[in-house]
Amino acid sequence: MTMTLGSEEENFLEVAVAAIPRITEIITAFPAEYRSGALETAERRYIEAARDFGCTEVAARTKVSEVMHNLQLQVERRGAVNRTLETLLGKLKPSG
């Protein structure tokens, strides 16, 4: 059985997914030890936004779970890239 999304959920998902690159950028700017808290804050804000879009509580939590999974993957990837770049830059700096 296939469920179709209501227009509220579609609208929320469109906006939420579009915001992932910017939110990823913001969260990865935090030191690694604060990213977990930043992700928790993002999740709370996404739930509030889903409710503001008119999603039911169940739909809000379900859709936010999907968005957060994607966001966490993006944060992990970007964090790994940033660590690699920092390592490479460290190797390029002249010692002295």
Summarize the SSE layout with pairings.
Blueprint: H1 7-29, H2 32-52, H3 57-92
Short description:
The protein has 96 residues and is an all-alpha fold. It has one domain (7-85). The protein is 83% helix and 0% strand.
Any overview of this molecule?
This protein has 96 residues and is mainly α. It has one domain (7-85). The chain has helices spanning 7-29, 32-52, 57-92. The mean pLDDT is 90.
Give the tags:
96 residues, mainly alpha, 0% strand, elongated
Q: Give the CA-CA distance, first to last residue.
A: 67 Å
Give the SSE string: HHH
- What global shape is seen? elongated
Instruction: Tell me the strand percentage band.
Output: under 5%
Kindly report the average pLDDT value: 90
Major pleated sheet: none
Would you count the extended β strands for me?
0
Structural domain count: 1
What's the gyration radius in Å?
17 Å
- Overall structural class, as computed from helix and strand content, comes to mainly alpha
